[in-house]
Amino acid sequence: MPGDGTKTAITTSNPPARLLELTRALSVFGGRPSGVDRVCLAYLKALSNAPAPCFGLARTRLGYVLLDPDGVRGVLTRLEGRVPWGEADLVARLLRRNGDYRRQTEADLRRLCIARCPASGLARMLRRHLPAGSVYLNVDQANFSQSKLQAIKSVRDAKVTLFLHDAIPLDYPEYQTPQSVLRFRDYLSAAQSEADLILTNSDASVQALRRHISQLGSVPPIQVAHLGVEVDFFQNEDNLEVPAFDRPYMICLGTIEPRKNVGQLLDIWERFAAKYPEERIPHLVICGRRGWMMEAFFERLEASPLSGRVVHEFNDLNDTQVFALLRGAAGMVFPSLSEGFGLPPVEAASLGVPVICNDLPVLREILHDYPIYAAVTDSYSWEKAIMSLAWERPASEGPDGQTGKRYFPPTWEAHFNTVLRVT
After folding, report:
1. How far apart are CA 164 and CA 198, in angstroms?
2. Please, what are the domains in the chain?
3. CA distance 24 to 15
4. CA distances from 53 to 22, 75, 140 (A)
């Protein structure tokens, strides 16, 4: 989760108040956050420490809860582990379909909130408690609708700012479930009609969003703010338990979903197995949550004779363990077919870990000439680069010594200097 590397911006627009959507950030409790989840957490920390008061809004099974700035800070301390989550209350226990983590979070939301209401009472609740001119920020790429945004804008002079991370569900619907494509269409329609400002993470995302939104009508202003890297994740911890390997390994990091193209890596490692003795094959370490529409890949992986010997999948490591593995890798392999930003290779580059990635415009925008770029159709270049990084790069030498390259990642301070200036 965001630590001291997430700094408040120097210059802000200082609205009377900001209202931050907390629904997705709260879902992180009990699991490992995805890239978008971590952006939500970074916003929670930055806005709770910004000069303008930050209220919080969250959707629960019973409707909405509204938190004042003290309540928002209370949520942050729990998500950071500085304060334990409370026990499930009677209401949570009666909602039997809720899991244990959700029962605890919703119980604490009821304890921390200044008001709650059914969905039909949202506009009335917000008008009663928010100052005029408040700015709503939603970083979830979810949890909003036209009716919800209209309820928020019923507060006098309220503004709506939405962070849209990409347009992948519409650009590449074959990588998504049909339901997620329809849901994203609804989000984009609501954004077009109600947003006063759209934030996004790259120029590549701006182009994609403009293309799709313009088909719906006028395009709201769009502001680019490159995502920051949470440097304090990278600190070493004593006595940290991480998997150990007897030879160099390559790491693939991120949710295991169709567009990440992890199947190509298994293809490559199977070709390695056909050509080399096992001791000459670098390990492949796949770290990430299991995503959607990947059943065939997981069946193939589990049936592979390489599984557990040369190819390893980890779904339940915490962030500190993942970044310890990342730091020790001979390189990151990132054959993704589409990205809005590409946080995993940015994090790898920030540590000086070499990166082999697909030649996507957004990765060139963010990473410049740091990675080894190889089209996913060029299997020979991928195999050559992997074996070169695994066996030809001295273990004690970073990429500076090898290539003379050094990467300066975007920072959260720069990100929020932009965001808090325009919202």
Report:
1. 7
2. 18-231+413-422 (3.40.50.2000), 234-403 (3.40.50.2000)
3. 24
4. 15, 15, 20
Phi/psi at 287 (5° precision): -120, 120
Q: Which tokens is 150 given?
A: 């209209």
Decide: 65 and 20 in contact? Cβ < 8 Å. Answer: no
Q: What's the pLDDT at 2? A: 38
Pairing of strands 331-334, 222-224: unpaired
Question: What confidence tier does 419 reach under pLDDT thresholds 50, 70, 90?
Answer: very high
Q: Is-contact 20 54, C-beta < 8 A?
A: yes
Distance CA 18, CA 29 (A): 23
Parallel, antiparallel, or unpaired for β 222-224 and 249-253? unpaired
Give the pair of three-digit tokens for residue 42.
Answer: 């970074």
Contact 336, 358 (CB under 8 A): yes
d(CA 229, CA 171): 26
273 neighbors 281 (Cβ within 8 angstroms): yes
Instruction: Indicate the residue type of 229.
Output: V
Side by side, which strands form the sheet with 197-200?
Answer: 115-117, 63-67, 54-60, 18-21, 135-138, 159-163, 197-200, 222-224
The overall average pLDDT reported for the chain is: 90
Which two tokens mark 352?
Answer: 């000086």
| CA proximity to 362, closest of 195, 261, 227, 222 | 227
Of the given ranges (27-31, 106-110, 338-342, 358-362), which has the lowest mean pLDDT?
27-31
Largest CA distance in the chain: 70
- The confidence band for 401, taking pLDDT boundaries of 50, 70 and 90, is very low
Pairwise CA distance, residues 208 & 80, whole Å: 34
Q: Tell me if residue 341 falls in helix, strand or coil.
A: coil
φ, ψ dihedrals at 99, nearest 5°? -75, 170
Secondary structure (H, E, C), 39-73? HHHHHHHHHHCCCCCEEEEEEECCEEEEECHHHHH
Cα 340 from Cα 342, distance rounded (Å): 6
CA distance between the termini of the chain: 23
CA–CA gap between residue 60 and residue 268 (Å, rounded): 45
d(Cα 70, Cα 48) in Å, to the nearest integer?
Answer: 9
